[in-house]
Design brief:
The protein has about 200 residues and is an all-alpha fold. The protein folds into two domains: about 50 residues, Arc Repressor Mutant, subunit A (Orthogonal Bundle), CATH 1.10.10; about 130 residues. It is built from nine helices and no strands.
Length: about 200
C-alpha cells in the first residue's frame, strides 16, 4: 500500500490510519464514516481516495493492520522471548499495564468485535495476528514446560482466550479485574515449582 509514496505521503497515510483507528475504537466500525475520517484528519475526499482507492474497505484493512501491529508491539520485548518464568511475568505485567492504560479504547476488542466482521480482508489480517500471537505463546510454553506440541498449543490458546475474554469484559464494564484474574490463572501452570 505504501509503495510509490513519498515520505510525506506515507506520513499522511499513516496519520489517516491512526485517526480512523481511534474513531473506530470510540464509535465502532458501523458508526464511523469516511466523512468522519475526513473531518478528523482535515483531508479532502480526493486526498482520502488517493491513499485509499477502494475507500472504506481499504481504510478498514489498513486500520486492521495498524491495530494488529499495535497489539503485538505492546507486548514487546517479552512476547519475543518467553523462555523463562520471569519473562512470562514481565509479559503478563506489560499486557495488564497496556490494557489498564487503554481501558475501553483498546485495539484488541475493536479488532475482534468490530473489524473482524467488516470484510474478508480485515478478517484475514486479524486471523494472521492471532496466528502470530499464538505461535509466540506456543514457543514460550514449550520453553518453560515439557509439554508436547498439542498440549503447548492448547495452553497457548487458553492464555490467548484469557487475554481476549478479559479485554472484552473490560470493554463492557470498564473494569480490568477480569483480565487481572484470568491472566494469572491461565499462566499459573507455567510457573516452576521452585518459584
Amino acid at each position: 500500500m505504501n509503495r510509490g509514496l513519498t515520505a510525506k505521503g506515507r506520513a499522511t497515510r499513516q496519520r489517516i490510519v491512526a485517526a480512523a483507528s481511534l474513531l473506530i475504537r470510540e464509535q465502532g466500525v458501523a458508526e464511523t464514516t469516511l466523512d468522519d475520517v475526513r473531518v478528523a484528519t482535515a483531508t479532502s475526499k480526493s486526498q482520502l481516495f488517493h491513499y485509499f482507492p477502494e475507500g472504506r474497505s481499504d481504510i478498514l484493512a489498513a486500520v486492521a493492520e495498524y491495530e494488529a501491529a499495535q497489539v503485538l508491539e505492546a507486548q514487546q520485548p517479552y512476547l519475543g522471548d518467553l523462555s523463562t518464568w520471569e519473562s512470562w511475568q514481565g509479559w503478563q505485567k506489560a499486557v495488564l499495564d497496556h490494557y489498564t492504560e487503554l481501558g475501553r479504547r483498546c485495539p484488541l476488542g475493536s479488532l475482534t468485535a468490530e473489524l473482524g466482521k467488516a470484510s474478508p480482508q480485515a478478517r484475514a489480517i486479524i486471523s494472521a495476528l492471532y496466528d502470530s500471537w499464538e505461535a509466540a505463546l506456543v514457543r514460550g510454553v514449550e520453553a518453560v514446560t515439557s509439554d508436547g506440541p498439542e498440549e503447548s498449543r492448547a495452553r497457548a490458546r487458553s492464555i490467548l482466550a484469557a487475554v481476549q475474554g478479559g479485554v472484552v469484559m473490560l470493554q463492557g464494564t470498564g473494569r480490568t479485574d477480569y483480565l487481572e484474574a484470568a491472566l494469572p490463572a491461565a499462566t499459573g501452570a507455567l510457573r516452576p515449582v521452585s518459584a
